[in-house]
Amino acid sequence: MKISIAVVSENKKDFLDLLLLGDEQEDMIDRYLERGELFVLSERGGRAAICVCVVTDEGNGLFEIKNLATDARYQGLGYGSLMVRHVCAQYMGKGTDMLVGTGESPRTLNFYRRCGFSYSHRLKDFFINNYRHPIVEDGVVLTDMIYLKKALRSSLSSCFATACPILWRVRR
């Protein structure tokens, strides 16, 4: 399958069904959707989104992945990882770090660690204080927001290592 990733600047709410997979409460999505950049991964020539990602500029060289969601039919196939690599590559040279905040689900934390993120800090009781109902992910009731960080390096070698590990190994 040939895919493309595009930035969508209008009618962002058209992707609400997919965005709700990454953030269950619409009013929370409303806090960042319009000020963020929405990336949409889809099959070339296809109309349906496979994966979406919203990135915001938090100032002082920090960017944050606010929402990352992959259609359930395509989960586990590498589209989320591809999207993370793509957005990190897009922001190289524009800032110093990419942040992501998530719950304490081991599966999600391991996903971001595999994408090169490491622990940054914790916001105590974030999910309790900001959501109307308990958020449960993989059987874990989420309470604290765990922030992970990844350096955005602009060197050619880190760009290859991040965006295309197979090509990088071959050319080393």
From TrEMBL:
One of its GO terms (molecular function) is acyltransferase activity, transferring groups other than amino-acyl groups. Pfam families: Acetyltransf_7. Residues 1-153 form the N-acetyltransferase domain. It comes from the Bacteria. Transmembrane segments: none annotated. The keyword Transferase applies. InterPro entries: Acyl_CoA_acyltransferase, GNAT_dom. This is GCN5-related N-acetyltransferase.
